[in-house]
Specification:
Layout: H1 8-11, H2 13-18, H3 20-40, H4 48-69, H5 78-98, H6 104-108, H7 113-122, H8 128-150, H9 159-236, H10 241-263, H11 266-273, H12 277-280, E1 287-288, H13 299-315, E2 323-330, E3 333-341, H14 346-363, E4 368-372, E5 375-383
Parallel strand pairs: 1-2
Antiparallel strand pairs: 2-3, 3-5, 4-5
Helix pairs in contact: 3-4, 3-7, 4-5, 4-7, 5-7, 5-8, 7-9, 8-9, 9-10, 13-14
């Protein structure tokens, strides 16, 4: 597992959902801080229009960050990160332009602090290396803006000190965000690796147990069908045409049973375990997977989908036609469509299934959710392995 490309949102979607309040508070603090400080230096503003544009740009970046951080819109993309940073840098430039002929902005350096706070808010959603690199570039750009502004200021304060006031908030907060993000990701990756090792050991034990269980099932089948037949033939001492027909019938039954068990996917087994089939008819009526592509899903994708099916089972009493899953291949990828009928309002659906949607959006990056007239439709894709 590559530690450099993963984020906390990818490795711990549920934990990231729990971080939503901190994201909202940090982002809101950035905008409120900008508004308050603009009000404090309003007397030095020579171009009020640019000051307003600066606040609008920063506000747009804050809204975009909160919008993208929502579990209904995961994952938080690199493009969104760049747009938020560009909005913050443009706001810094506009604020500098609003006070271009006064040195107050350079001395206070407050316009860089909101951007630093936005880096803190983006910590759980982007990789540490990306945050650190972006913060470094942003601090250099902000320092260049401060240096240009310095030429218009009448002050005997050293230039490096004035530039440092602008650069350090961005650099410090972005590096702090990157450090924390990297530490959390490394801890999660290490935990997963240790879990994988333990799971392999458990899997070997479970495989032996399954093999014994399957062997016992075969013995039970033989004892119930085959042994009595052979015993009757031995007792009679002759083989009749009826015995031949009976033998063919037993062989066909055993063959059909074994083929059915071989063809049955893990997803069909999950549906059977959850007893979806108990009221919805035959098991295969719930899932259409003629190409047997359910096994292409990764362990994370299987776990996420199974957890969602468990939640559906607990939320809704199964009825005929309650659930339908279609899996099919398309080019080099596999696509799936899950349709479920629910007697829930859209608000209730979102509140109850928000954690599951958050996980599914991260595991299946192109997940689309639609809920119309009580019918929930999930469309997703995954790579063939």
């Amino acid at each position: 597992m590559n530690r450099q490309v993963h984020t906390r949102q990818q490795l711990d979607p549920i934990g990231t959902v729990g971080n939503a309040l901190a994201t909202v508070m940090t982002t809101a603090s950035a905008f409120v801080f900008a508004v308050v400080m603009t009000g404090n230096v309003i007397d030095t503003v020579t171009r009020p229009a640019l000051a307003i544009v600066a606040l609008l740009l920063l506000g747009a970046g804050c809204v975009l960050l909160l919008h993208a951080a929502s579990p209904y819109r995961a994952p938080f993309t690199r493009r969104t990160h760049h747009i938020v940073v560009i909005s913050g840098l443009t706001a810094i430039a506009c604020q500098a332009g609003a006070e271009w002929y006064d040195d107050q902005m350079v001395r206070s350096g407050w316009c860089a602090i909101p951007l630093g706070l936005l880096y803190l808010a983006m910590g759980p959603y982007r990789p540490a290396q990306e945050l650190a690199l972006s913060g470094t570039v942003s601090s250099l750009i902000a320092g260049a803006i401060a240096l240009l502004h310095l030429h218009t200021a009448n002050d005997d304060v050293p230039a490096l000190a004035l530039i440092a006031v602008t650069v350090l908030p961005i650099l410090a907060l972005s590096y702090a965000s990157a450090t924390y993000s990297g530490a959390v990701v490394n801890a999660l990756v290490s935990w997963r690796e240790s879990l994988q090792t333990a799971r392999k050991e458990v899997t070997r034990d479970e495989t032996d147990g399954v093999a014994r269980s399957v062997q016992q099932d075969r013995i039970t089948l033989l004892n119930r069908e085959v042994v009595p037949f052979f015993s009757s033939v031995v007792e009679r001492g002759e083989l009749t045409e009826g015995d031949r027909q009976h033998a063919r019938s037993i062989a066909d039954s055993v063959r059909r049973l074994m083929v059915s068990e071989v063809d049955r996917s893990w997803l069909e087994q999950v549906l059977e375990q959850l007893m979806f089939a108990s009221t919805a008819g035959p098991q295969r009526s719930l899932i259409h997977d003629d190409e047997h592509i359910a096994h292409h899903m990764t362990d994370d994708q299987r776990t996420a989908l199974r957890a969602f099916l468990v939640a559906l089972r607990e939320e809704h009493r199964p009825e005929a036609g309650f659930l339908q899953i279609d899996l099919f291949s398309e080019a080099a990828s596999c696509r799936g469509v899950l349709v479920a009928k629910l007697a829930l309002t859209e608000m209730t659906l979102r509140s109850r299934f928000a954690p599951y949607f958050a996980v599914l959006r991260v595991i299946f990056a192109d997940l689309r959710i639609e809920y119309f007239h009580g019918v929930l439709t999930l469309s997703f894709s995954y790579e063939q392995r």
